[in-house]
Amino acid sequence: MTVTSARAPRRRDALSRQRIVEAAIELLDADGESGLTVRALTSRLSTGRGAIYHHVAGVDDLLAAAADDVIRAATERTADGTDPTTAIRDLSLAIFDALDAHPWVGTQLAREPLQPAVLRIWKSIAVQLQGLGIDGSARSDAGAALASYIFGSAAQFAAGARRSSDEAKRQNYLDALASAWTERDDDQVVRDAASHLRDHDDRKQFMAGIDIFLKGIT
Amino acid sequence: MTVTSARAPRRRDALSRQRIVEAAIELLDADGESGLTVRALTSRLSTGRGAIYHHVAGVDDLLAAAADDVIRAATERTADGTDPTTAIRDLSLAIFDALDAHPWVGTQLAREPLQPAVLRIWKSIAVQLQGLGIDGSARSDAGAALASYIFGSAAQFAAGARRSSDEAKRQNYLDALASAWTERDDDQVVRDAASHLRDHDDRKQFMAGIDIFLKGIT
DNA sequence: ACCTGAACACCGTTCAAGT
DNA sequence: ACCTGAACACCGTTCAAGT
C-alpha cells in the first residue's frame, strides 16, 4: 500500500516582496492593524509560515513597507509647477485622503521616525519649503513642524476613520466621545470643545491647521 | 501524612487600580512598551494573573491610565496667572519633558483620541486659547492643530528618546538615521535635512514649531 | 534558492476553585 | 468581594526537512 506525502504541493508562482506587501495592504484595509498576522498572510498567499521571511525581515518591516506604498502613491499625485503654498496644500490633502482610505497608516506613521514613508513626507515638504525660499535651520524647523502636525493629525483621525464606514456610525462615535468628555469634566471649555467635536469636519479642520502653519512661516 | 496546599498564601495588602498603574509605569519606564505584560506585572505585584482584571479592564485601559498619570503631573505643573502665550509655551515644555522622561507615552498618545490624557491636553490648550480671546470654531481649529502638533512630535521624539539614555548612543542613532536617509535618496534636499538632523536639538526644534503655530494664530 | 509546516517561546484573557 | 493559577486561544519567528 503506497502512501502519498501529506505535504502540500509546492506553489508554482514565486513569492516576491511586492506580492507580500500588496497582500498585507489588503488585510490591513479589511481588518485594521490586528488583521495583519503571519498566519492570515500566509494563508492568503497559500504558502508556509516561514516563506515570507525570505522576502521581508518581519512584521514590522512589512508594516513599514505597506505604509510606504500608500504614501508613495499619495505623494506622487502632487502636481509640479504650482506655487509652493498650493503644492503644500495639495500634498496635505493627498496625504489626508490616503490616510482616510487606509486608517492603519496613521498609526503606523507615528511609530517609527526612521521608516521610508516618513522620509518621503519630509522630503516632499522640504522641496516646497525650498521653493518658498526657506533655508538652513529655518527650513528644518518648519519641515519638522509641518511633518509632526501631519503625523499627529493622522493618528487622531485614524481612530475616527476606522469607524466612519458609514455616516451614522461616525456620528455615533463622535457623540459618544463628546458625551464621555463632558461626563468626565463638565467645565465650560470642555463643553465648547465637545460641541464642536460633534459637528466638525475632519478634512476642513485638518486644512485649517495647515493654513495656521503656513501663516506662521511667512 | 498531611499534605499542605500547593497554593501560594494569599497576599495581605489589597491591590488597587492606583497600585497597578504605578507598577505599570515602572515597567514601562524600565523596558518600554514591550515591558508591560500581564505576566511581568503580576509577578512584580506578587499576585495571580486574573487579579488585575478586577481593577482594570485590560492592558489597553492600563496603558491609557498610565499615560494619563504622567500627563496629569505635567499639566498640573503649569503656573496660573501668566499670560496665555507664555502659559502655552510652559505647558508645551512641561509635556515635552514628561515625554522625554517617559518615551512610551508619546506612542500611547497617538493611539487613541478618546483617552483621558488626550482630553487633558486638549483642555489645557483650550483654556489658554480662550485667554487669548479665540472663540468658536477658530478655537477648536487652533486647539486641534496645536494638540496634533504635540502628539505628532511626541511620537517622533519618543523613538529618539528611547535611545538617548546617554549622549553617545543618541548621536549614533542620529548618525545612522541621517546616513540611512541619504543612502536611500541622495537628493540635495535630503542631504540638507540629514545634516540638520545630525546636530539638531529636539527641545529647541519642538519649541520652534510651537512658535510657528503661535505666530500663525495671532 | 526557495519553500513547507511543525516546534518554540511567548502573549492577553477567562474562569472554576479557593478564601 | 477579591484573589489564584491553570487553561484557552492566540501570537511572531526559527529551522530541519524537502524540492
Automatic annotation (TrEMBL), chains A, B:
InterPro entries: Homeodomain-like_sf (IPR009057), HTH-type_TetR-like_transc_reg (IPR050109), HTH_TetR (IPR001647), Tet_transcr_reg_TetR-rel_C_sf (IPR036271). It comes from the Bacteria. It holds the Pfam family TetR_N. Keywords: DNA-binding, Transcription, Transcription regulation. Residues 14-74 form the HTH tetR-type domain. Residues 37-56 bind DNA. One of its GO terms (molecular function) is transcription cis-regulatory region binding. The keyword Transcription regulation applies. PANTHER family: HTH-TYPE TRANSCRIPTIONAL REGULATOR RUTR, TRANSCRIPTIONAL REGULATORY PROTEIN. This is Helix-turn-helix transcriptional regulator. It comes from Solihabitans fulvus.
